Amino acid sequence: MSRSSQDFILIAVADEVARPEAAHAAAVTGVEVVTAEDPRDIARLAPRARAVLVCAATAAHVAALGRRTGLFLVAADPGPIDYEAGLRCHAEQAFVLPSQAPELLTALGNKHAQVKPTRHKTIAVTGACGGVGASTLAAALARHAAPSVLVDGIHGSGGLDLLMGLETANGARWPDLQLGGGGVDAGNLVQALPATHDGVAVLSAARAGMADPFTLTLDSVDRVLGSLRTRDGLTIVDVPRGVIPGAADHVVVLTAAEVRPVAAAAAMVAQLHADSVPYQLVLRHRGWSGLGVEDVERICHADVSAEIPLIRTLPKSTELGGLPGRLPKGLAQACGLILEEAGWFQ
After folding, report:
1. Which Pfam families has this protein been placed in (predicted)?
2. CATH classification of 8-113 is 3.40.50.2300, yes or no?
């Protein structure tokens, strides 16, 4: 399930009595109503909805995704309302249903009039196996679509700032963020990050000469991605195999044209398909390719959206000075196809 604009009201209510009442009230507004109970679906949908209806059981989860406006707490008649949960999630108002359905409808109508849609997309990039070049592809996509935000979503990755030539640049890294129980202001975050000359803001891991107690969690990644959704623009996040943030709109699976990586890719795309997560398969040619496009598509039961040719000079140039400011032709063409397939048009 994927939504790219603020064209719906999300019902994230666990209470089985309050949920249908909330959905009924929301439907009267004439806006599409989407109900989600799986935390992964809630994480993906909540940041971009016109309004989100929560109950005491789901309020904290939604607030942790960075949602700070358009939140309404509901409870089933006769109550009581958990006002502490409402305060913690910054709910604008609280209602008992169905007795206060008219008041909820008024609040949703006001929110409908006030909504300011954003144009944002979050693309996750993952490799079918280690060493296939997913981090380089993530960085290349961010550069091709600049201005953009590039997020390092892999604990212990060494830092995407190195890949972008920003290792000595001032700016915030993951350990510097104070997420607390919620998200961060998107505008302030982007301004605090180191950025390349062409406008790629990078949130990366930090490097320390001693044991570092910091651990990057999927929850932290989802909170930041949820916050970034509140601003216009593109976010590219580099993620480990099999760990897809709930806030991702689209997943790029990169595989080498070799038997074992393609076998791993087949399992990944099957799971993404089962989870209804939009994805595309990208094929990279390394020193020797044992499989062709037709072979890969047959094994994975998925189309290959783009191919990255062997670029012999890229590993050395990236190692010495970071990803080139002007991407090699074959890589740039692949990035264009990938972004088009993901629905991002500049």
Report:
1. Rv3660c_N
2. yes
